[in-house]
Write a structure and sequence with these properties.
alpha+beta; outer membrane lipoprotein receptor (LolB), chain A; 13-stranded antiparallel β-sheet; 13 strands; 19% helix; globular
Length: 261
Protein backbone atom coordinates (compact mmCIF):
# COMPACT_ATOMS: atom_id res chain seq x y z
CA UNK A 1 0.00 0.00 0.00
CA UNK A 2 2.86 2.32 0.81
CA UNK A 3 4.31 1.82 -2.68
CA UNK A 4 0.87 2.40 -4.26
CA UNK A 5 0.54 5.71 -2.40
CA UNK A 6 3.91 6.85 -3.70
CA UNK A 7 2.88 6.00 -7.27
CA UNK A 8 -0.36 7.95 -6.88
CA UNK A 9 1.53 10.98 -5.61
CA UNK A 10 4.19 10.75 -8.29
CA UNK A 11 2.72 9.32 -11.53
CA UNK A 12 5.09 7.57 -13.88
CA UNK A 13 6.63 10.07 -16.30
CA UNK A 14 5.77 9.72 -19.97
CA UNK A 15 8.55 8.16 -22.00
CA UNK A 16 10.98 10.80 -23.24
CA UNK A 17 10.94 11.58 -26.95
CA UNK A 18 13.84 10.36 -29.03
CA UNK A 19 15.69 13.01 -31.05
CA UNK A 20 13.96 11.79 -34.22
CA UNK A 21 10.52 11.78 -32.61
CA UNK A 22 11.07 15.32 -31.38
CA UNK A 23 12.38 16.42 -34.75
CA UNK A 24 9.36 14.99 -36.55
CA UNK A 25 7.00 16.61 -34.05
CA UNK A 26 8.62 20.04 -34.51
CA UNK A 27 8.38 19.70 -38.30
CA UNK A 28 4.74 18.63 -38.13
CA UNK A 29 3.98 21.62 -35.90
CA UNK A 30 5.65 23.87 -38.48
CA UNK A 31 3.46 22.50 -41.27
CA UNK A 32 0.38 23.16 -39.16
CA UNK A 33 1.56 26.70 -38.34
CA UNK A 34 2.17 27.43 -42.03
CA UNK A 35 -1.41 26.54 -42.84
CA UNK A 36 -1.64 22.77 -42.66
CA UNK A 37 -3.60 21.26 -45.55
CA UNK A 38 -3.93 24.69 -47.20
CA UNK A 39 -0.13 25.05 -47.26
CA UNK A 40 0.34 21.53 -48.60
CA UNK A 41 -2.23 22.18 -51.35
CA UNK A 42 -0.64 25.49 -52.44
CA UNK A 43 -0.43 25.34 -56.24
CA UNK A 44 1.43 28.56 -57.00
CA UNK A 45 2.68 31.77 -55.45
CA UNK A 46 3.43 35.33 -56.58
CA UNK A 47 5.80 37.47 -54.50
CA UNK A 48 6.14 41.15 -55.39
CA UNK A 49 8.52 43.63 -53.82
CA UNK A 50 12.09 44.95 -53.75
CA UNK A 51 15.13 42.75 -54.27
CA UNK A 52 18.63 43.78 -53.20
CA UNK A 53 21.88 42.05 -54.14
CA UNK A 54 25.18 42.53 -52.35
CA UNK A 55 28.84 41.93 -53.07
CA UNK A 56 31.23 41.87 -50.13
CA UNK A 57 28.49 43.36 -47.95
CA UNK A 58 28.10 46.36 -50.30
CA UNK A 59 24.86 46.96 -52.21
CA UNK A 60 25.45 45.96 -55.83
CA UNK A 61 21.92 45.87 -57.24
CA UNK A 62 18.35 46.95 -56.53
CA UNK A 63 15.27 46.09 -58.51
CA UNK A 64 11.53 45.79 -58.38
CA UNK A 65 10.97 42.05 -58.51
CA UNK A 66 8.08 39.70 -59.02
CA UNK A 67 8.71 36.00 -58.43
CA UNK A 68 6.26 33.46 -59.83
CA UNK A 69 6.45 29.89 -58.48
CA UNK A 70 4.38 26.92 -59.59
CA UNK A 71 4.46 23.45 -58.04
CA UNK A 72 4.30 20.24 -60.04
CA UNK A 73 3.97 16.56 -59.17
CA UNK A 74 7.36 15.13 -58.16
CA UNK A 75 9.09 13.15 -60.95
CA UNK A 76 12.40 11.27 -60.90
CA UNK A 77 15.36 13.52 -61.69
CA UNK A 78 13.27 16.68 -61.77
CA UNK A 79 12.44 19.46 -59.37
CA UNK A 80 8.74 19.67 -58.55
CA UNK A 81 8.69 23.40 -59.23
CA UNK A 82 9.20 26.00 -61.94
CA UNK A 83 10.13 29.58 -61.15
CA UNK A 84 10.00 32.81 -63.12
CA UNK A 85 11.77 35.87 -61.68
CA UNK A 86 10.85 39.11 -63.45
CA UNK A 87 12.52 42.46 -62.83
CA UNK A 88 11.61 46.10 -63.44
CA UNK A 89 8.27 47.89 -63.42
CA UNK A 90 7.37 46.42 -66.80
CA UNK A 91 8.77 42.97 -65.97
CA UNK A 92 10.75 43.18 -69.20
CA UNK A 93 13.70 41.09 -68.03
CA UNK A 94 14.15 38.10 -65.82
CA UNK A 95 15.16 34.48 -65.43
CA UNK A 96 13.25 31.24 -65.91
CA UNK A 97 14.10 28.05 -64.04
CA UNK A 98 12.51 24.90 -65.43
CA UNK A 99 11.90 21.63 -63.61
CA UNK A 100 14.10 19.71 -66.07
CA UNK A 101 17.23 21.55 -64.94
CA UNK A 102 17.30 24.18 -67.69
CA UNK A 103 17.49 27.88 -66.93
CA UNK A 104 17.30 30.96 -69.10
CA UNK A 105 18.05 34.67 -68.79
CA UNK A 106 15.33 36.49 -70.74
CA UNK A 107 15.67 40.05 -72.12
CA UNK A 108 14.48 41.95 -75.18
CA UNK A 109 17.43 40.44 -77.03
CA UNK A 110 16.22 36.89 -76.50
CA UNK A 111 16.89 33.96 -74.16
CA UNK A 112 20.39 33.05 -73.04
CA UNK A 113 21.17 29.78 -71.22
CA UNK A 114 22.17 30.30 -67.61
CA UNK A 115 25.67 29.15 -66.62
CA UNK A 116 25.93 25.68 -65.15
CA UNK A 117 27.16 27.00 -61.79
CA UNK A 118 24.05 29.20 -61.51
CA UNK A 119 21.83 26.18 -62.22
CA UNK A 120 23.74 24.08 -59.67
CA UNK A 121 23.22 26.75 -57.00
CA UNK A 122 19.54 27.06 -57.82
CA UNK A 123 18.97 23.31 -57.65
CA UNK A 124 20.83 22.99 -54.34
CA UNK A 125 19.05 26.00 -52.85
CA UNK A 126 15.66 24.65 -53.90
CA UNK A 127 16.23 21.15 -52.56
CA UNK A 128 17.44 22.57 -49.23
CA UNK A 129 14.75 25.25 -48.94
CA UNK A 130 12.62 24.50 -45.88
CA UNK A 131 9.38 25.56 -47.58
CA UNK A 132 10.11 23.28 -50.55
CA UNK A 133 10.99 20.47 -48.14
CA UNK A 134 7.74 20.89 -46.21
CA UNK A 135 5.58 21.37 -49.33
CA UNK A 136 7.14 18.70 -51.57
CA UNK A 137 9.66 16.43 -49.83
CA UNK A 138 8.03 15.69 -46.48
CA UNK A 139 7.15 12.09 -47.33
CA UNK A 140 10.20 11.43 -49.48
CA UNK A 141 11.78 8.02 -48.73
CA UNK A 142 14.87 8.23 -46.55
CA UNK A 143 14.11 11.61 -44.98
CA UNK A 144 15.28 11.89 -41.36
CA UNK A 145 14.21 14.66 -38.96
CA UNK A 146 16.52 14.84 -35.95
CA UNK A 147 16.19 17.38 -33.15
CA UNK A 148 19.22 19.24 -31.83
CA UNK A 149 17.11 20.52 -28.96
CA UNK A 150 16.14 24.02 -27.87
CA UNK A 151 18.32 27.13 -28.07
CA UNK A 152 18.14 30.90 -28.48
CA UNK A 153 18.78 32.56 -31.84
CA UNK A 154 18.70 36.35 -32.25
CA UNK A 155 16.89 36.63 -28.88
CA UNK A 156 14.24 34.16 -30.08
CA UNK A 157 13.64 30.78 -28.42
CA UNK A 158 13.99 28.14 -31.13
CA UNK A 159 13.88 24.42 -31.76
CA UNK A 160 16.69 23.26 -34.05
CA UNK A 161 16.17 20.31 -36.38
CA UNK A 162 18.55 18.60 -38.82
CA UNK A 163 16.69 17.40 -41.91
CA UNK A 164 18.72 14.81 -43.83
CA UNK A 165 17.67 13.18 -47.09
CA UNK A 166 18.54 9.80 -48.62
CA UNK A 167 21.61 11.36 -50.29
CA UNK A 168 22.96 12.40 -46.88
CA UNK A 169 22.35 16.09 -47.60
CA UNK A 170 21.42 18.00 -44.44
CA UNK A 171 19.52 21.24 -43.90
CA UNK A 172 19.52 22.65 -40.37
CA UNK A 173 16.39 24.64 -39.56
CA UNK A 174 15.57 26.88 -36.61
CA UNK A 175 11.85 26.94 -35.73
CA UNK A 176 10.41 29.56 -33.37
CA UNK A 177 9.20 27.85 -30.21
CA UNK A 178 6.03 29.94 -29.95
CA UNK A 179 4.94 30.51 -33.55
CA UNK A 180 6.42 27.17 -34.76
CA UNK A 181 7.49 28.94 -37.98
CA UNK A 182 10.94 28.66 -39.62
CA UNK A 183 13.20 31.63 -38.80
CA UNK A 184 16.56 30.40 -40.13
CA UNK A 185 18.00 27.62 -42.24
CA UNK A 186 21.55 26.66 -43.14
CA UNK A 187 23.24 24.07 -45.33
CA UNK A 188 26.67 23.44 -46.80
CA UNK A 189 27.33 22.90 -50.49
CA UNK A 190 30.53 22.43 -52.46
CA UNK A 191 31.44 23.75 -55.88
CA UNK A 192 31.32 20.68 -58.16
CA UNK A 193 34.52 21.78 -59.93
CA UNK A 194 36.72 23.35 -57.27
CA UNK A 195 35.20 21.58 -54.21
CA UNK A 196 35.19 24.96 -52.46
CA UNK A 197 32.94 24.93 -49.39
CA UNK A 198 30.02 27.35 -49.11
CA UNK A 199 27.77 27.76 -46.09
CA UNK A 200 24.40 29.03 -47.27
CA UNK A 201 22.17 30.72 -44.68
CA UNK A 202 18.65 32.09 -45.15
CA UNK A 203 16.73 34.12 -42.55
CA UNK A 204 12.93 34.46 -42.61
CA UNK A 205 10.81 37.10 -40.85
CA UNK A 206 7.67 39.23 -41.03
CA UNK A 207 5.22 36.40 -41.62
CA UNK A 208 1.71 37.26 -42.80
CA UNK A 209 -1.42 35.39 -43.79
CA UNK A 210 -1.46 35.24 -47.60
CA UNK A 211 -4.80 33.50 -47.94
CA UNK A 212 -6.63 30.54 -46.47
CA UNK A 213 -4.54 30.64 -43.32
CA UNK A 214 -1.25 30.09 -45.19
CA UNK A 215 1.65 31.98 -43.58
CA UNK A 216 4.57 33.29 -45.66
CA UNK A 217 7.64 35.44 -44.79
CA UNK A 218 7.65 38.92 -46.31
CA UNK A 219 11.35 39.46 -45.49
CA UNK A 220 14.02 37.02 -46.67
CA UNK A 221 17.78 37.47 -46.29
CA UNK A 222 20.50 35.19 -47.65
CA UNK A 223 24.12 34.92 -46.59
CA UNK A 224 27.04 32.98 -48.01
CA UNK A 225 30.06 32.21 -45.84
CA UNK A 226 28.96 34.90 -43.41
CA UNK A 227 28.44 37.65 -46.01
CA UNK A 228 25.03 39.03 -46.94
CA UNK A 229 24.31 38.41 -50.65
CA UNK A 230 20.56 38.97 -51.11
CA UNK A 231 17.47 40.49 -49.50
CA UNK A 232 13.84 40.42 -50.62
CA UNK A 233 11.15 42.57 -49.04
CA UNK A 234 7.72 41.71 -50.38
CA UNK A 235 4.93 44.25 -50.62
CA UNK A 236 2.45 41.51 -51.48
CA UNK A 237 2.32 37.72 -51.66
CA UNK A 238 -0.60 35.86 -53.24
CA UNK A 239 -1.19 32.14 -53.66
CA UNK A 240 -3.28 29.96 -55.98
CA UNK A 241 -3.58 32.59 -58.69
CA UNK A 242 -4.79 32.01 -62.25
CA UNK A 243 -1.38 32.02 -63.92
CA UNK A 244 -0.97 31.32 -67.63
CA UNK A 245 1.09 28.26 -68.55
CA UNK A 246 3.26 30.36 -70.88
CA UNK A 247 4.62 32.22 -67.87
CA UNK A 248 6.56 29.06 -66.99
CA UNK A 249 7.56 28.14 -70.52
CA UNK A 250 10.21 29.41 -72.91
CA UNK A 251 8.39 30.90 -75.93
CA UNK A 252 8.93 28.76 -79.02
CA UNK A 253 9.56 31.82 -81.19
CA UNK A 254 12.06 33.54 -78.90
CA UNK A 255 15.58 34.04 -80.20
CA UNK A 256 18.00 31.72 -78.43
CA UNK A 257 21.33 33.36 -77.72
CA UNK A 258 24.69 31.69 -77.22
CA UNK A 259 25.88 31.03 -73.66
CA UNK A 260 27.85 33.84 -72.10
CA UNK A 261 31.53 33.54 -72.93
Amino acid sequence: MKHLAILLLFPLAAPAESSQERGRRVVNEAVAALGGSAFLAMNNRVESGRAYSFYREELSGLSIARIYTRYYAPAPGKLAVRERENFGKNEDSGVLFLDNGEGWEITWRGARPLPSDTLDRYRASTLHNIFYILRVRLQEPGMIFESRGADVYDNQPVEIVDITDANDQTTTVYFHQSTKLPVRQTFVRRDPKTRERFEEVTIFSKYRDVGGGVQWPFAIQRERNGEKIFEMYSDSVAINQKLADKLFELPSNIKKLKPAG
